[in-house]
Specification:
five-stranded antiparallel beta sheet, alpha+beta, 27 strands, seven-stranded mixed beta sheet, single chain
């Protein structure tokens, strides 16, 4: 290890961001098999992003080894090879592809071998020889990866997938449990056979690999729980019989008369007494909509039938009338009308009724499972009576916390137990008891299957029958949490998807007025069957080949990070009160898992005093909450800087709220060539000073130097350019290294000079890596902040420290200058067009102004017209937009091809014919195509500053497509058939 020294990693130089972001965005739409279905956690990082960041954090950049890659060209070729591996690695289909994963692991091991042995010595070894040398101890083992704010576990899981020991820690017991289920339990019971009698009898016992046996047992004993629950509480979940009376005015029900249908959900509306004195004895419904299904061809709605001082509900099929969409709601908020009298029901009245204990519920409709989809039925007296007959013997009495505390008690809901109907409480406590009983069944079956029982539990490192039974119990307990999430009185009915929608549609527990009560014993969303499926389905995606450890530790004082690679996604300000939200789950997990993890579930609720989020209600004021957060976060980050492995940078995800996004403020403005007072392009999409800049200050004060900043998106490409809609960056990955204790002090002048000297090369590397224009300004912060933070501090002429805000302004200023200097690569006609476009875009301007500018740019308006760039008539001049350009343009027949034409014809062809057609045109343009890409960057920055989102989208899309265009150009040269296709 004496040979180990810091070498620059890939993540400190360049990344194929477009591929990473595309894979991360796609992942949001994937449900089956995704670990996120195991248990909800908020703001979980995409697996693709976590995997890519770790790979690039662990693998050397070629420039770190000049003896192996002596020229810039050789370094770029090697970088492109690593990019190709990374692009494959982030694809969802390759999540369990051992061939792809092993290629990535080989690169990680090779970089480690170079550090331990030296570059030349390591290069003499094959991949297999390096792996063997690590296995036998000739090369020290790779360090583990630690995430001290593990949360939903994406980072530790991906570290384990890449072959490194994974360490997860968090203050929150729910997060720790999720991480145990993802990285700690699967390796312990890897390749274990199932112990349940059904699977042991009917399958080849030699065919079980990984955690397939564990998943099979979770599935089997989950089904056993359902069967037991059916016996104990099945009477509370009856089917519904289609009678002739129900079908009297429903032609769609006549073929079902006499059949018993399984109920999927019962739909309810909250009620209060009518404020109209004439109907004060009647509880009237608070309904936001009477629409049951808006699915085309399967529409259904509730029709209230009023008779004097009584009412009932019936169900109609067909297109709903307009009145059905509004229900009994009047305006936004808790404002309704009395169904009987039409009198308004004010929000304050509803709150008073709730606090007095007079808020009830009335059944609106019943949703059943038919042979061809959902069947919507009116409520029956029998079904409503059965629901009201439930008598729970226990309910969670923990008071509501956080934002839920601000809303729910206003309506008389004080505890977590109040969020459930009596029937739900009976069922959930029954299932909670059955988790314990199931564990005993597993233990007995495991012993019968030959698994020794040493009596050592899961928490103490056991691997015998007792520990295995508890492992199965953990997944069943997580399934129970999922059941609670879709089985409470805050669950909406989704009329489009025709299913119950769990209560955490937002990162909060909002009050709702009409709710769905799923049938726990059915098989649709909200049932125990579905919950168990989602608990065991992701198990096959867990890579159990490396060890994993999950512990409850405060990040400010933990020592787990010592000598490890650190990648983490810390909480930020008041984004999410994890402790408050997770108490919803904690009350059920504590009931089921306290016997397994007594220390983890010792307290009545999750720890809150030490949680690093800025929640004013805990600290008395917003400023006090922010001070608490920043002081604690600085201590936690300093703790990481002190312990991080010296060979690797630290990566920190910074996530922010959409309302934080704004234009960075400028201290100076510039005047354009045409007299347009407008500042240069600023860091659009950079979070505000109270967020992004303050977080950077904390990172720097903790002792880190920042060596990279990478914007990570989880929105699809069409959303990434939504300027002024605050939908750009989901998070920023900061790449950091501990700053040397003897770092010098720099002056502002020295800092600015270093920026001007070093930023052009860094910017060129980013553009060469095909960083999208929308991401360029943010990515350029990395090399800029690397210059700023390599000094102990930067001071101005008076000795006053230059703060982060001013440093960001200077970085951005130099970025603008560098982009402007690239104009020297463009022809004279294009330089004229840039200046004109900045002022007018594609709108008309005065001929005289155009002519004056043309003289300054050494061209003429007539020449610009001849070049096919502009239209001049009636004393007006305008640039031709891509849609105005001729569709059969061929650069070979154009005597005055400009870079401006090249980029806009490429956009036209890309829009009309896709990347294949764009590649054909790029091939004809030759070297002009590469300059056109540079021009697209420049045009994007102009559009960004001028707030022209449509044009900006086109330039960004061209750059983002460039990798594929270049690939198709290469294939064209290699394949005559491809050439023919491109010609066509």
């Amino acid at each position: 290890m004496n040979h180990i020294r810091s070498r620059k990693k890939l993540i400190e130089v360049a990344l194929p961001l477009d591929a990473i972001n595309a894979a991360s965005a796609r992942e949001k739409s994937i449900r089956h098999g995704h670990p996120s279905t195991l248990h909800l956690w908020w703001a979980r990082r995409p697996l693709a992003a976590a995997r890519a960041v770790l790979f690039a954090q662990l693998v050397d950049d070629p420039s770190a080894w000049p003896e192996l890659f002596p020229t810039a060209e050789a370094q770029q070729r090697e970088r492109e090879r690593l990019f190709a591996i990374l692009k494959e690695l982030v694809q969802w289909e390759n999540t369990t592809n051992e061939e792809v994963l092993e290629r990535a692991r080989c690169e990680i091991r090779r970089s480690w071998a170079r550090h331990c042995l030296g570059g030349t010595a390591a290069e003499r070894l094959s991949d297999d020889e390096i792996a063997e040398a690590i296995r036998t101890g000739q090369i020290p083992p790779l360090p583990g990866v630690h995430d001290p704010f593990a949360g939903g576990g994406s980072i530790p899981l991906e570290a384990q997938r890449l072959g490194l020991a994974a360490y997860a820690s968090d203050l929150n017991p729910v997060a720790v449990t999720i991480n145990k289920a993802m990285i700690e339990i699967p390796p312990r019971f890897r390749d274990c056979l199932p112990v349940n009698p059904q699977d042991r009898q009917r399958l080849d016992l030699n065919s079980w690999h990984g955690v397939q046996g564990l998943a099979a047992d979770v599935r089997y004993y989950g089904q056993w729980m359902r069967e037991q629950a059916q016996r104990r509480i099945g009477h509370l979940y009856p089917p519904i019989t289609i009678t002739a009376e129900l079908a009297a005015d429903r032609a769609d029900l006549r073929s079902l008369i006499g059949q018993q249908l399984t109920v999927i959900a019962w739909l309810w509306a909250r009620t209060v007494r009518s404020p109209n004195p004439a109907f004060a004895h009647v509880e009237v419904p608070l309904v936001t909509t009477f629409i049951l299904s808006s699915k085309p061809g399967h529409e259904a709605y509730v029709e209230p039938v009023v008779a004097g001082d009584t009412y009932h509900f019936t169900v109609r099929v067909g297109k709903p009338p307009e009145w059905a969409k509004q229900g009994t709601k009047l305006v936004r908020g808790a404002n309704f009308r009395c169904l009987l009298s039409g009198a308004p029901i004010a929000g304050d009245y509803i709150k008073a009724e709730g606090q007095a204990g007079r808020m009830g519920a009335r059944m609106l409709a019943i949703v059943a499972e038919g042979s061809r989809g959902r069947v919507y039925l009116p409520p029956t007296a029998e079904h409503e009576a059965i629901a009201r007959s439930a008598q729970p013997t226990w309910k969670p009495d923990l008071p509501l916390h956080g934002k839920a505390r601000d809303q729910m008690p206003l309506y008389g809901m004080e505890t977590y137990g109040d969020l459930f109907t009596p029937r739900q409480l009976v069922a959930l406590t029954t299932f909670a008891d059955l988790v314990g009983e199931a564990m005993e069944c597993v233990r007995r079956d495991a012993q019968a299957a030959g698994l020794p029982d040493d009596g050592v539990g899961l928490n103490d490192g056991g691997t015998g029958a007792t520990a295995y039974a508890q492992a199965v119990g953990v997944y069943l307990a997580l399934a129970l949490d999922r059941l609670a999430m879709t089985g409470n009185n805050l669950v909406r009915w989704n009329g489009v998807g025709e299913k119950a929608q769990h209560c955490f549609g937002r990162q909060a527990l909002p009050m709702i007025w009409d709710f769905a009560e799923p049938n726990f014993l059915a098989s649709a969303t909200g049932s125990i069957e579905a919950a168990v499926f989602y608990a065991c389905d992701p198990l096959n995606l867990m890579n159990a080949s490396a060890s994993g450890f999950a512990d409850q530790v405060d990040a400010q004082s933990q020592t787990i990070s010592s000598g490890k690679v650190i990648s983490t996604d810390p909480p930020y300000y008041d984004n999410i009160g994890y402790a408050d939200l997770s108490d919803f789950f904690y009350v059920w997990l504590r009931r089921t898992l306290r016997p397994i993890f007594p220390d983890l579930y010792a307290t009545l609720s999750t720890p809150k005093a030490e949680e690093l989020v800025a929640t004013p209600y805990r600290h008395g004021s917003k400023p006090a909450a922010e001070r608490f957060f920043m002081d604690g976060m600085t201590r936690a980050l300093h703790n990481l800087a002190e312990q991080a492995h010296p060979a690797f940078p630290v990566t920190i995800y910074y996530a922010f709220k959409q309302h934080e996004v704004r234009e960075a403020q400028r201290d100076e403005s510039a005047t354009g060539e045409l007299g347009d007072p407008d500042p240069p392009s600023s860091l659009r999409s950079a979070p505000s000073s109270t967020g992004w800049e303050t977080f950077l200050e904390a990172v720097i004060q903790a002792g880190f130097a920042i060596t990279g900043t990478w914007p990570m998106h989880t929105e699809m490409r069409t959303r990434q350019i939504a300027m002024n809609t605050n939908a750009l960056t989901s998070s920023i990955v900061l790449v950091c290294r501990p700053r040397p204790a003897d770092a010098p002090i720099a002056t502002r002048r020295e800092f600015l000079a270093a920026l001007k000297a070093e930023l052009p090369a860094a910017l060129a590397a980013l553009q060469h890596a095909n960083i999208a224009p929308v991401d360029l300004a943010q990515a350029a912060i990395g090399p800029g902040m690397a210059i700023y933070t390599r000094s102990a501090r930067v001071v101005d002429a008076q000795g006053t420290p230059v703060r982060v805000r001013e440093a960001l302004t200077l970085i951005n200023q130099v970025l603008d200058e560098v982009l402007a200097e690239q104009e020297s690569d463009f022809d004279a006609d294009t330089r004229w067009a840039l200046a004109w476009f900045e002022q007018y875009g594609f709108a008309e301007g005065e001929y005289g102004v155009a002519e004056t500018l043309s003289k300054a740019k050494n061209t003429s308006v007539e020449g610009l017209v001849a070049a096919g760039m502009v239209e001049a008539k009636r004393g007006k001049v305008r640039l031709l937009a891509p849609k105005d350009l001729p569709s059969h343009w061929d650069p070979a027949g154009d005597s005055r091809v400009t870079h401006w034409e090249a980029v806009h014809h490429l956009i036209r062809v890309l829009n009309d014919g896709g990347e294949l057609a764009a590649a054909a045109l790029a091939a004809k343009l030759g070297s002009r195509a590469d300059v056109a890409r540079e021009l697209a960057y420049r045009l994007y920055t102009i559009c960004e500053r001028k707030k022209r989102p449509d044009e900006a989208f086109a330039y960004n899309a061209l750059v983002q497509s460039w990798s594929e265009i270049a690939r198709l150009m290469y294939e064209q040269r290699q394949s005559p058939s491809m050439q023919q296709a491109m010609d066509l």
